[in-house]
Each structure stands twice: as structure tokens, then as C-alpha cells.
Design brief:
Length: about 325
């Protein structure tokens, strides 16, 4: 299994792309007055993305459509912040994103959808939240009506305790958020790995549960550098019915990766050897040509011999000196 270029994005898409995870998130984090009007049983993921090439450096998006009261359907967009530090002006990126959604709808001559942007942030430093008006602190208040005013729902995992996450009314969402929050924290994982698999201790596992477990294990291995001994210690602390999955996943990712690395190293070595051989052959041909020219035209200058042989003057000078010494 090849490691993706952006493992955090990959995990985010795998997990929040599951309708049950998205639904649990909305139930736990959206304001009650909105949740009460959403028909979450009809929540539906929309294929595609509205993130432009410029925005991809910052966000990945997953879009859902959901009926809202008697008004129609709203777009609920999960935006995943890639970076370990927050963006200085998130409203600018969000506004650009919302405009792209509306422009797409306008081109297709559809009603403009209402967009609820949600930012999921898993950096270690806390997210400093500001209103759009705070970007313009020195301007007169009389100008405020001319600023676009909108808000976004933020989930800053650095601001949520493990206990808060564990007490969510949710299933796999808990495992997902804990994994995102503690990725790369080897000491925490060695002590509390059981929390990552909370509510997934069941034999035999259903097909969805097997997939969840594999997602978690793969993500942890992709985002933390464990050696064999460290992983064995973690496996010892995992629930008994997950140990076999933990070891087989490790073998699949790490061992196969090592074998691929060895093979790539061998291939690179062969290629380097071929290139070195070619270069050595070219150099030897140049030397032979220079030797022949010096023997035939001993009165030619080093510069002229070098030009005829397509070589450096220093090489000609070196070979001439060797011949004279012999």
C-alpha cells in the first residue's frame, strides 16, 4: 500500500466521506436551532469539489446536501485545514470558496445554494478566531456595513479535551477525531492506544468495522515513525481482537515499504552504475583521441588539441605531461 502524498487529507476524505460520520458531526457540533431543521436522514454526499487549484494548498473539501425545513436544501461543506498553523485570514479563503460554489450554480442556471462552511483544524497550536470586521481595526465604524459579514463553524481539536471527544454522542467520529488530534504523538499513542479503538472491540467484526480499523491503523502508521519494537509495544496495548489486524497492517505497510525501498535502491544503483560506465567510456574515448592527436601532431598547442578532441585543456595538458614523463 503506497503512502499518499497528503496522508491527513486522505484520512479526512476516507472518514468524513462516510455519511454516518458527517451526520454524527452535525448532531454534535451544529447549533441546535439548525440541527432541528435539518432532515439528516436525507443527508447526501455530493460528488466533486469546489476547491480551486489556489485553495488546494489550504483546504480539502467534502460536500453534503441536506433538506432544511420547508426552504430547500443547503450545502454543508466540510473544509479540512491542511497546515499545522491556522491561516491568517480564513474568511478570505472561505469567501473565495463560497463564490466558486455560487458561480458554478449560476453557470448551470440553478438557484444559489446556501453554504454552511465548517473548518476542521488539527494543528497543535490553537486557532485564533476573529470576525471579518477585526481585519480592519483602524477603520471608521460607518464603513462596517460595506464589509461582507459571515461566519463559519470551527472545530479546533487542540481546544477539545479527550474526555470531551469521548463523551460525544457518536460512533466512528470519536475514533476519527482522536486519531487526527494525536497523530504523530508516539508517547500518547503508546499509553492510550485503546482509546483510538473505543467501541470497535467486537469479534467477529462486520465489514464496515474492519474498514474503520484498517483506516485508523494505516493513518497512525503513515503519520508516525514507529520501529518494530515501538509498534510491538503499542500492539500489546491494543484490544486483544485488534492485535492481529495491527500486526498484519504493519507488515503490509512497513515491511512492503522496506522491500520496495530495497528494490528501488537496487534499481537506482544499477542505473547509476550504467551512467558511470557510460561516463567512464566517454572519458576513455577522449583520452585515446587526445593521445592519438598528440602523437600525430606533437606541435599542436594544448588549446588546439582540446578543441579537436572536444575536451578540457587541463586534460590535454595532463596527458601531454604523462607522455613526456614516459
Amino acid at each position: 500500500m503506497e503512502k499518499p502524498r497528503k496522508p491527513h487529507d486522505h484520512f479526512f476524505r476516507q472518514t468524513f466521506g462516510l455519511t454516518e460520520v458527517a451526520r454524527d458531526y452535525l448532531l454534535n457540533f451544529l447549533p441546535e436551532e439548525i440541527v432541528g431543521k435539518l432532515q439528516l436522514d436525507a443527508l447526501q454526499r455530493i460528488d466533486g469539489s469546489f476547491v480551486s487549484r489556489k485553495l488546494r494548498a489550504h483546504f480539502s473539501d467534502i460536500i453534503y446536501s441536506c433538506p432544511f425545513g420547508d426552504t430547500g436544501s443547503v450545502f454543508i461543506t466540510f473544509l479540512f485545514e491542511h497546515k499545522s498553523r491556522q491561516e491568517k485570514y480564513p474568511h478570505i479563503q472561505l469567501l473565495r470558496y463560497i463564490l466558486e460554489v455560487w458561480e458554478s450554480a449560476a453557470k448551470e442556471k440553478l438557484p444559489l445554494p446556501f453554504v454552511i462552511p465548517i473548518i476542521l483544524y488539527h494543528g497543535k497550536e490553537g486557532w485564533e478566531r476573529k470576525a471579518m470586521s477585526e481585519y480592519f481595526p483602524s477603520w471608521d465604524e460607518s464603513l462596517q456595513p460595506y464589509l461582507p459579514q459571515f461566519d463559519y463553524l470551527l472545530t479546533d481539536l487542540s481546544d477539545l479535551s479527550d474526555e470531551q471527544l469521548l463523551n460525544l454522542r457518536a460512533g466512528f467520529l470519536i475514533n476519527t477525531l482522536l486519531s487526527l488530534k494525536h497523530q504523530g504523538e508516539k508517547n500518547w499513542l503508546q499509553k492510550y492506544i485503546r482509546l483510538i479503538f473505543r467501541n470497535l472491540e467486537n469479534t467477529p467484526f462486520s465489514a464496515p468495522e474492519k474498514n474503520y480499523i484498517e483506516m485508523l491503523l494505516v493513518y497512525l502508521l503513515w503519520t508516525s515513525s514507529f520501529d518494530d519494537d515501538e509498534w510491538e509495544l503499542i500492539v500489546e496495548e491494543t484490544p486483544s481482537d485488534i492485535k492481529d489486524y495491527a500486526m498484519s497492517t504493519y507488515d503490509l505497510i512497513i515491511k512492503k515499504g522496506e522491500q520496495q525501498g530495497i528494490q528501488q535502491g537496487i534499481q537506482q544503483g544499477i542505473q547509476q552504475g550504467i551512467q558511470q560506465g557510460i561516463q567512464q567510456g566517454i572519458q576513455q574515448e577522449k583520452r585515446n583521441l587526445i593521445i592519438g592527436l598528440l602523437s600525430e601532431f606533437p606541435d599542436f598547442s594544448d588549446q588546439r588539441i582540446a578543441r579537436l578532441a572536444g575536451a578540457e585543456e587541463d586534460l590535454v595538458r595532463q596527458i601531454r605531461a604523462e607522455q613526456q614523463n614516459n
